[in-house]
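INTERNAL AUDIT FORM
Audit reference: QA-55
Scope: verify that the stored structure record matches its stored sequence.
Auditor: D.O.
Record contents follow.
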Amino acid sequence: MEQALRTIIESIVSEPSQVSINEVEGERSIVYEVKVSESDMGKVIGKEGRIAKAIRTVMKAIAAKENKRITIEFIG
């Protein structure tokens, strides 16, 4: 799942080398902390949070196949 998230994020940002993803796994849930450069934060979040919401929706669909709950936090 982390690789899918990384691929999505890196395709959006201008500086893919600045992308950092930290995975915190619980028993039935996973939290991903996504860090991007400050200049790319607007691209990842999108207008009114639409891009961020779309990323979360796609990742939740992937996680549902593995019976996991997923949370994605964007950190500037």
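Auditor finding: record pair retrieved intact. The helical segments are 2-12, 41-45, 50-65.
Action required: none
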